[in-house]
């Protein structure tokens, strides 16, 4: 679809795109119903109302279907995070972080099977191709680091000096800073890493039932406390 609302591409290209969208939609439904390990192209073809060979022309294997679903999930999650963060004032860095965390949790609770595919246990026998999944898979962490980096550039980040880093860790962090285009000082980068893994750890515990069924009456309240603490750890005031 073009910016003016008109269809673009040849009829064959449009038909192929529509079929891939249908395969992805049914793949999401099958993922929720049977789990990633039990996904089957034959079942997708059956639900699509075509013979298996017709699906294989678009998606050659179960692994390709999984990759399609992984990219789809990361992309949708990234878009929801962007929408939530963009709704917050540009100078409210703490508010942007809170919005990001809430968006991640909201999507994860709404789409537990898709979240599990992205952040849960690896699917046996499946190795996600980095050339297709790394870009979409780093959308959220890139936005997260971008918020903290923007706060630092604006002089709004509380920076603390930590213990000296080993040469190995310092080199690794420098590589990360270059890759993400950030000017965060080393200790701020360490804190940002802690915030990143802790945010997803908190969401994982809730989505995957690791708190237990009767530990917290309202998991949203403790999540909000976690977000506030993580904002403090990051240095966002």
Automatic annotation (TrEMBL):
<dbReference type="InterPro" id="IPR050109">
    <property type="entry name" value="HTH-type_TetR-like_transc_reg"/>
</dbReference>
<dbReference type="GO" id="GO:0003700">
    <property type="term" value="F:DNA-binding transcription factor activity"/>
</dbReference>
<dbReference type="GO" id="GO:0000976">
    <property type="term" value="F:transcription cis-regulatory region binding"/>
</dbReference>
<dbReference type="InterPro" id="IPR001647">
    <property type="entry name" value="HTH_TetR"/>
</dbReference>
<keyword id="KW-0804">Transcription</keyword>
<dbReference type="Pfam" id="PF13305">
    <property type="entry name" value="TetR_C_33"/>
</dbReference>
<keyword id="KW-0238">DNA-binding</keyword>
<feature type="domain" description="HTH tetR-type">
    <location>
        <begin position="17"/>
        <end position="77"/>
    </location>
</feature>
<keyword id="KW-0805">Transcription regulation</keyword>
<protein>
    <submittedName>
        <fullName>Putative TetR family transcriptional regulator</fullName>
    </submittedName>
</protein>
<dbReference type="InterPro" id="IPR009057">
    <property type="entry name" value="Homeodomain-like_sf"/>
</dbReference>
<dbReference type="InterPro" id="IPR025996">
    <property type="entry name" value="MT1864/Rv1816-like_C"/>
</dbReference>
<feature type="DNA-binding region" description="H-T-H motif">
    <location>
        <begin position="40"/>
        <end position="59"/>
    </location>
</feature>
<dbReference type="InterPro" id="IPR036271">
    <property type="entry name" value="Tet_transcr_reg_TetR-rel_C_sf"/>
</dbReference>
């Amino acid at each position: 679809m073009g910016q003016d609302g008109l269809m673009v591409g040849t009829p064959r290209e449009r038909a192929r795109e529509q079929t891939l969208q249908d395969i992805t939609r049914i793949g999401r439904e099958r993922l929720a119903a049977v789990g990633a390990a039990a996904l089957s192209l034959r079942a997708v073809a059956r639900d699509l109302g075509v013979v298996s060979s017709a699906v294989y022309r678009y998606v050659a294997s179960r692994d390709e279907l999984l990759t399609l679903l992984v990219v789809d999930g990361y992309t949708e999650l990234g878009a929801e995070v962007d929408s939530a963060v963009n709704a917050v004032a540009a100078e409210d860095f703490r508010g942007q972080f809170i919005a990001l965390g809430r968006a991640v949790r909201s999507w994860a609770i709404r789409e537990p099977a898709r979240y599990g595919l992205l952040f849960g246990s690896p699917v046996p026998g499946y190795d996600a191709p980095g050339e297709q999944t790394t870009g979409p898979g780093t959308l959220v962490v890139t936005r997260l680091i971008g918020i903290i980096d923007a706060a630092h550039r604006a002089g709004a980040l509380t920076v603390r000096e930590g213990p000296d880093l080993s040469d190995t860790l310092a080199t690794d962090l420098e590589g990360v800073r270059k890759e993400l285009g950030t000017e965060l000082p080393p200790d701020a980068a360490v804190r940002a890493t802690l915030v990143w893994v802790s945010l997803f750890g908190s969401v994982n515990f809730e989505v995957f039932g690791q708190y237990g069924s009767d530990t917290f009456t309202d998991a949203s309240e403790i999540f909000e406390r976690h977000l506030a603490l993580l904002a403090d750890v990051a240095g966002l005031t």
